[in-house]
Amino acid sequence: MSGYHEEAGDYAEPLPPAGVDQHRIEKAVREILLAIGEDPDRDGLLDTPARVARAYAEQFAGLDQRPEDVLTTVFEAGHEEMVLVRDIEMYSTCEHHLVPFYGVAHIGYIPSAEGQITGLSKLARLVDVYARRPQVQERLTTQIADALMTNLKPRGVIVVIEAEHLCMTMRGVRKPGAKTLTSAVRGGFRDSDRTRAEAMSLILGRR
Ligand SMILES: Nc1nc2c(ncn2[C@@H]2O[C@H](COP(=O)(O)OP(=O)(O)OP(=O)(O)O)[C@@H](O)[C@H]2O)c(=O)[nH]1
Ligand SMILES: [Zn+2]
Q1: Are residues 184 and 90 in the same domain?
Q2: Which one of 37, 64, 118, 155 is most buried, by most CB atoms within 10 A?
Q3: DSSP assignment, residue 120?
Q4: Ligand 1 in contact with 167 (CB < 6 A)?
Q5: Is the distance from the beta carbon of residue 166 to the nearest atom of ligand 1 less than 6 Å?
Q6: Which atom, in ligand 1's list, is nearest to the CA of 137?
Q7: What keywords is this UniProt entry annotated with (predicted)?
């Protein structure tokens, strides 16, 4: 198990989602700049509305994606034991303040009796499908777990996310370093303390 590095390719720079109206974002950003007392026509800000529109199209690309779009490789390998990918880098956007929260996701599953598994990179892609939306960490965690249950029909799933929320560090309560941990367990990980403990020790070990 090791950290995940996004493969090069078109997924790294997704096309703007059809549902993201970049022109509308540009107009809104110009309004915000005016509202904070800035001059949107000064040199440094001239291209900012368009940049923000492109950035939002990327940050919210997951709104146009479904888990089955990325869980494309599912094969039978006769492997029935736990598979766990930990430390998957994750960047999302807090739906309350529209600022980032970021950290790592750990995903484990126990394949179906037929030994159905998916490509390891697909687990990381699945994180992005749900992270690239306005989110709360709890929903992000359960959506990943439920998508795996539906698409892989495994005997169990565990998803743990550790993240820092910029809305808690750069503003508001201002508690830098505070980490939020969320977990979602399904199937065997919910029913068996031993299985869950094994997964947690793999996730939290070697730190
Ligand atoms: N449960 C949960 N809360 C979140 C998440 N991201 C941000 N929040 C919280 O959402 C809450 C929104 O609270 P409000 O009182 O409506 O907004 P606010 O006045 O900006 O709150 P403060 O952040 O406390 O200044 C805050 O407590 C945030 O910390 C998340 O992923 N999950
Ligand atoms: Zn927030």
Answers
A1: yes
A2: 118
A3: H
A4: yes
A5: no
A6: 31
A7: GTP-binding, Hydrolase, Metal-binding, Nucleotide-binding, One-carbon metabolism, Zinc
Task: Give the residue numbers of the binding site for Zn(2+).
Answer: 94, 97, 167
Tell me: do 163 and 98 sit in the same domain.
yes
Task: Give the domain extent around 118.
Answer: 71-204
39-46: long-range contacts, CB 8 A cutoff, minimum separation 24: none
165 lines ligand 1 (CB under 6 A): yes
ipTM: 0.91
Q: Within a domain: residue 14?
A: no
183, containing H or E segment: strand 180-187
Residues with catalytic roles: 94-97, 137, 165, 167
Taking the model in full, what pTM does it have? 0.89
The pairing of strands 83-94 and 116-118 is unpaired
